[in-house]
Design brief:
The complex is a heterodimer of chains A (287) and B (271).
Chain A (H helix, E strand, L loop, with lengths): L2 H4 L3 H26 L3 H22 L2 H19 L3 H23 L6 H9 L7 H30 L1 H6 L4 H23 L5 H4 L1 H9 L3 H25 L5 H31 L2 H8 L1
Chain B lengths: L5 E10 L2 E11 L4 E5 L6 H9 L6 E6 L11 E4 L13 H10 L9 H14 L15 H14 L4 E5 L7 H18 L3 E4 L12 E6 L2 E5 L1 H4 L2 H8 L3 E6 L2 E6 L10 E4 L2 E2 L1
Parallel strand pairs in B: 3-7, 3-8, 5-6, 6-7, 11-12
Antiparallel strand pairs in B: 1-2, 1-4, 8-9, 10-11, 12-13
Classes of the chains: A mainly alpha (287), B alpha/beta (271).
């Protein structure tokens, strides 16, 4: 009963499709998350997907819709109160704590199987319907389109906000748009790997990619490729080793990419430095 | 006669309840190098922000190339001070320069090849080709500032605004960067508004100085402004200006003399 056996079933096919869609979105936002130092925002919005999911279960028996609405509320709150980088982390911390408290409170009123709500903490990739695949697909396409449209101004605003503003880039608005994209992506990913492990797709591949290149385009491509390999690779492995949860294997693969990138990254970076630190550079530096 | 590239009439800026400066009349001519000096908080950078359209005037008028300032005016080149970039930031020198062409554009890049060629030319013009592919976080301040000038010049600016571009640079880099700015001015007649707290490195290029001190201002040639009388009058305390070779030193008997135009000295001790 290996990989081939499971692949006959639609639940396994759905899982692979869902993992692919989620990984592409996560791989796309990852480099921006790191450039804008927003890892904690990813963590905050993903954990609060739990609260949103519980609320969704209570109100409409639909955890995903609840998580999405919750993520948008959280993104708006972070955007409103955490515009300045210095106060963003503390703002997220405050919202995260309050939101999780609310989630636990709401869970007390839910009389269904608690596992429905807990699924969102660790992911439940095998319960995905065709309708959900469609929703995940729409989200992935929207995320890809928005990120492609705002890619250069967002990078400009992330690297060099003063000059970007002077050049007419609406840096504040872009920050909020990116928060929304991030919140939606993270909530989507929480379905697959769970809110606790979202970072393994939204941060780890991008962090690994950054060790391997400093070309922003190459970093994005590597980040997407590694996220997809981790997500679908982890799933396929879990067919082979059914006793291990897929999210664990996904995390393991993405972490392995990161360790490898850290190990070979310095060699690439020093080759790069040698190439550029010619006599010209030394002369300029030391006059 | 065509309008001056920059025109301010009775211009005033208010920050909260405080007037930064008022009644400022200023025409900057084609090819002029204007140094803006003064202590911290005197509104030097704010003047640039007014020209960029980031800060509105409280009174008076301002025109840039004959029109009111507006955000995203690509007739202005802007060179800020160097900043520390994270070493692992996935952005290369050429990416920073390229922002000057399409950093503000939405959607997919178009005319990719033409853009790349222009970036290549801009890099070569400032002598930065050798480190164009290095991550910006690994570049020295002088290298970074060359890239920023290349970025600003890519927009073919009609006015160049520089905000402390020499800050934290070593002497050789200061000279190299100033030379590049001056070259643009001489070749294209692009006027330069150069905010600095140190006039000496740019003195050979400066046509006029705008000196801002706590709401007051003075404008004129360096020899006119950098005198004990003018600066004592501006600061409202006794200030002595000493010229040593080609450098100006501003000396005050009082402690609280803020940022000075040259190498500074309190109580007669050169720092």
């Amino acid at each position: 009963m290996g990989i081939g056996f499971y692949l006959q079933f639609s639940f396994a096919q759905h899982a692979l499709e869902a993992a692919f869609l989620v990984a592409v979105s996560c791989g796309l936002i990852g480099p921006f998350v790191i450039t804008r130092t927003m890892s904690f925002a990813v963590h905050g919005t993903s954990e609060l997907a739990f609260t949103g999911a519980v609320a969704g279960l209570l109100v409409a028996d639909n955890p995903l819709a609840g998580a999405l609405v919750g993520a948008l509320i959280v993104a708006t709150l972070i955007g409103l109160f955490g515009q300045r980088a210095a106060e963003r982390d503390s703002t997220i911390g405050v919202i995260l704590a309050a939101g999780l408290g609310l989630g636990v409170f709401l869970l007390g009123y839910y009389h269904g199987y608690a596992s429905e709500a807990l699924n969102i903490l660790f992911g439940n990739i095998f319960g995905i319907s065709s309708g959900q695949i469609l929703l995940l697909g729409v989200i992935a396409v929207v995320v890809a389109i928005v990120l492609t449209a705002i890619r250069r101004p967002l990078l400009f605003a992330s690297i060099d906000p003063d000059v970007a503003r002077a050049r007419g880039v609406p840096t504040g608005l872009l920050g909020i748009v990116f928060l929304f994209v991030l919140a939606i992506t993270v909530t989507e990913a929480a379905q697959i790997v769970g809110t606790l492990l979202v970072l393994s797709l939204a941060i780890t591949p991008a962090a690994a990619a950054q060790r391997l290149s400093s070309n922003p385009f190459v970093v994005t491509v590597l980040s997407v490729v590694m996220a997809v390999l981790a997500a679908d690779g982890g799933l396929l492995l879990s067919f082979q080793f059914p006793t291990v949860k897929p999210s664990v294997l996904i995390v393991a693969i993405s972490f392995a990419f990161y360790v490898i990138a850290r190990l070979i990254g310095p060699a690439i970076a020093s080759r790069r430095r040698d190439r550029f630190a010619g006599p010209d550079l030394a002369e300029l530096r030391h006059g | 006669m065509t309008a001056a590239p920059v025109e301010l009439r009775g211009a005033a800026v208010r920050l909260g309840s405080r007037d930064l400066w008022t009644g400022l009349d200023l025409d900057i001519a084609v090819g002029e190098f204007l140094a803006v000096l003064g202590p911290n908080g005197a509104g030097k950078t704010t003047l640039l922000k007014v020209l960029l359209g980031l800060v509105p005037l409280a009174a008076g008028t301002v025109r840039v190339n004959g029109a009111p300032p507006r955000l995203g005016n690509h007739e202005l080149g802007y060179v800020p001070q160097q900043q520390a970039f994270d070493r692992s930031l996935p952005v290369r020198g050429r990416d920073l320069v390229r922002f000057g062409i399409d950093g503000h554009r939405w959607g997919l890049p178009c005319h990719a090849r033409a853009v790349r060629e222009r970036v290549e030319e801009a890099l070569a013009a400032v002598g930065a080709s050798a480190y164009a592919d290095a991550p910006v976080g690994l570049l020295s301040g002088g290298e970074q500032q060359r890239l920023r000038i290349a970025q600003a010049l890519l927009g073919d600016p009609r006015v160049l605004l520089c905000d402390e571009p020499l800050l934290a640079l070593d002497l050789a880099s200061q000279q190299a960067v100033t030379h590049l700015i001056d070259e643009r001015r001489r070749q294209a007649g692009t006027p330069v508004v150069f905010v600095t707290h140190e006039v000496n490195p740019v003195l050979p290029y400066v046509d006029r100085i705008l000196y801002l001190v706590r709401g007051k201002w003075a404008i004129g040639a360096p020899a006119e402004i950098l005198t004990s009388e003018r600066l004592s009058d501006l600061y409202g305390i006794d200030v002595d200006v000493i010229k040593v070779r080609d450098r100006y030193l501003v000396v005050s008997a009082e402690d609280e003399l803020p940022t000075e135009p040259g190498a500074h000295a309190h109580h007669g001790h050169a720092h």
